[in-house]
Design goal:
By secondary structure, this protein is of the alpha/beta class. Helices cover 38% and strands 16% of the residues. The chain has 6 helices and 6 strands; from the N terminus they run E-H-E-H-E-E-H-E-H-E-H-H. The chain has a 6-stranded parallel sheet with strand order 3-2-4-1-5-6, with helices on both faces. Helix 1 runs parallel beside helix 2 and helix 1 packs across helix 6. The two termini are 12 Å apart. It binds adenosine-5'-diphosphate and magnesium ion (MG). Magnesium ion binds next to helix 1. The site of adenosine-5'-diphosphate has 15 residues, from helix 1.
Length: 215
């Protein structure tokens, strides 16, 4: 079973969005997906249940498990699923646990939003010590930092350059994804975070999952 974690210490960067779209994309590909809600505030269960009603061929392919405590479960012996996708809260608790407890085999997506100056400041800054710790204790972090909502204020390529520069300055460039997610906002329905009808979003998410060895 493949295990994917989406984590960042900042709200609004797209953790729940990426987790939701990833789970749906994988289910469309015929995978059996367990979505793990490790965030008290996440509405992922609602989004997935809604999508299941509207897209009949993924029905039965995705289950959502809600955890009230913020702990990274041990998934030994849960072979029923092909992939587990974990959505997390706005802190590094779960990534910290992964490193501290030497949990092996998890792949990690860290979204960052170029137009969100707080996220651009805090995400690389707070990630550095965790990466250093992982190196000290010999955990090989399979992690990709992916620019999200690119093109929201400017064009996507200058947004990507901004993230690249920031990660280079922080010594984290090796973790930057070769791909990005575009700003895929639309008017209706305002609360739906499902962006797979946006061809660039879908293509880039697909490539990101390939990059991480999930697809
Ligand atoms: N690529 C994107 N394009 C357009 N809107 C996005 C994108 N990614 C996230 N959003 C929107 O941004 C808001 C916050 O996203 P969310 O996934 O809930 O962030 P987090 O889980 O990190 O708090 C939501 O309204 C979501 O629909
Ligand atoms: Mg969320």
């Amino acid at each position: 079973m493949l295990k994917l974690l989406i984590n960042a210490p900042k709200g609004g960067v797209g953790k729940t969005t990426i987790a939701t779209n990833t789970a749906l994309l994988l289910a469309e590909e015929g995978k059996s997906v367990l979505v793990l809600k490790l965030s008290g505030t996440s509405r992922i269960k609602y989004h997935i249940e809604n999508a299941k009603k509207n897209v009949p061929n993924i029905y039965g392919k995705i289950e959502v498990e809600e955890h009230t405590d913020e702990n990274l479960p041990n998934f030994k012996g849960r072979g029923k699923y092909d992939v587990v996708v974990a959505d997390t809260d706005d802190n590094w608790n779960i990534l910290d646990q992964l490193v501290d407890k030497k949990r092996k085999g998890w792949r990690v997506i860290v979204p960052i939003v170029p137009s969100d100056s707080e996220a651009m400041q805090s995400i690389p800054e707070e990630l550095q010590p965790i990466v250093n710790q992982s190196r000290i204790i010999g955990i090989n972090l399979c992690m990709k930092i992916v620019p999200n909502k690119c093109g929201l204020c400017d064009d996507s390529s200058s947004d990507i350059s901004l993230v690249k520069q920031r990660l280079q300055d922080c010594g984290l460039l090796t973790y930057m994804s070769r791909y990005y997610l575009p700003y895929a906002g639309r008017v209706l329905p305002p609360s739906s975070p499902i962006f797979l009808d946006n061809s660039i979003f879908r293509e880039q998410l697909n490539l990101l999952l390939f990059e991480l060895g999930i697809l």
